[in-house]
Design goal:
Blueprint (H helix, E strand, L loop, with lengths): L1 H24 L15 H23 L23 H38 L4 H22 L11 H12 L2
């Protein structure tokens, strides 16, 4: 029973945080225009997905048979996965995220996201510089296109000289 509660704890915590964030997103004040989504739409959508995943995982853990939790019940030949990594990796990812958010207004979305994704990939164990560079550029280009061209979100361009990169990307995307 204690094992099951330990397995449920992260999902319950994230569920509570998600419900709290939804309450905050529900209080976003704006003037409604017909046939247009408001600034609260995307945060609410993401939070709903987060809450849904937590509810699904909580249900899955509760419905799983207790025999599946026993250490000796795994299939022969299969080994349990090791822990995700030391806590310092998690704290480093949080630190990278905080730095990303604090510098976004200075370096802009394009440069900030490029280095943020590269930093997270490097922290996650991808050590091939070419792979990190190609994936970081691709992910940044995808998100810039998605937010600027499809959703029409104004992303921070940064201050000069960083804004030049943002404007060049916007010109490339036709924004």
């Amino acid at each position: 029973m204690a094992t099951r509660l330990r397995q449920l704890a992260p999902y319950v915590i994230i569920l509570i945080v998600g419900i709290s964030l939804y309450a905050v997103a529900d209080r976003i004040a704006y003037t409604k225009f017909p046939n247009q989504i408001g600034p609260d739409h995307w945060p609410k959508l993401i939070i709903i997905v987060m809450i849904s995943v937590c509810l699904f995982e909580i249900g899955r853990k509760l419905l799983a048979s207790p025999a599946a939790e026993q250490p000796g019940s795994e299939v022969e030949g299969w080994e349990e996965e090791e822990e995700a990594g030391p806590p310092r990796t998690v704290f480093a990812a949080i630190a990278i995220t905080v730095v990303y958010l604090l510098t976004l207004g200075i370096v802009g979305f394009v440069i900030g996201t490029l280095f943020y994704v590269a930093g997270l990939m490097w922290l996650g164990g991808t050590r091939r510089p070419g792979t990190v560079a190609i994936l970081s550029l691709s992910i940044t280009a995808f998100f810039a296109f998605f937010f600027m061209k499809l959703i029409y979100v104004a992303l921070p361009t940064g201050i000069s000289p960083f804004s030049w990169v943002s404007f060049a990307v916007m010109k490339l995307l036709g924004v």
